[in-house]
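Weekly structure sync, notes
Attendees: PL (lead), two postdocs, one rotation student
Agenda item 3: pending single-chain targets
PL asked that the sequence for the first pending target be pasted directly into the notes so everyone works from the same version. It is reproduced below exactly as submitted, 301 residues in total.
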Amino acid sequence: MSFEVIVIGGNFAGLSAAMQLARARRRVLLVDAGAPRNRFSEASHGFLGQDGQTPAAIMREGKRQLSLYPTTTIRQGKVVRAQSDGDAFIVGTEDGGEERAARILLAIGVSDTLPEIPGLKQRWGRSALHCPYCHGFEVGGGKLGVLANHPHSAHSAMMIPDWGATTFFTQALFEPDEEQLVKLTARGVRIERSPIVELLGDDPKLEAVRLADGRVVPLDAVFVAPKTSMASPVAEQLGCAFDDGPFGPVIRTGENKETTIKGVFAAGDAASAMHNATLASASGVLAGVHCHQSLVMQSVV
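Predicted structure, written out during the meeting:
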């Protein structure tokens, strides 16, 4: 086999995993489709040493540094097929290429499905946001909204007042229970039960939202948690088990980041219910380290 490990995905998790394996002098192939989840964001925040950098710049520099390791190969392409073959794995790309390796490391990421509200999609990552820790400081002090589209939305709305005056839009879908209502009131959150039907302003800027009853409410940013799905079918093709996360399926892994399929490891948003640049990178480090150790242990049996 030309490679010992194939890393699928070249965002923060995949690059961090590949770096550990490269530094362990293992033959690594990283295949990146070039469509990271964070491509809509102007900057990555809260990532130590990278605060304010564009995600593209961080990944570009990561690939440059990774390419300096002689046992590493980086390829642009989309993996469309993955399967086991005895004690190895075969990976097929969209252009018809095929490679084998002893280990697979999945950093495939997730795809977001947003509520079907006019004006939301074109503001995604700019003034329609998913994480206050990633983007809250930049919209701090403004008029902020939380769009309820999942059962944990009320909890999210309790967090947001630390960044600005907050309105919780129930969308007539997720009415706070009595306990939640008390906590939201204590946090100064305004409850709006008429659903948002349109986002207004010169996108990607948000100036206001139009409600179903015709009112227009001034707003500078809205937080919404999209539903997520795997960005690639390869985890399912390999037979990996999934858990039900709060926003979508999550690849099941142990503490060592190995999936339910021996020899297949996973990191990043696809393998965690918590999505954050630093967490993705950290999980990649762990997956890369444990993947290397599994190769070592196999060789001494």
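Discussion points:
- Residues 277-300 form the longest helix (24 residues).
- The mean pLDDT is 95.
Action: rotation student to compare against the earlier draft before next sync.
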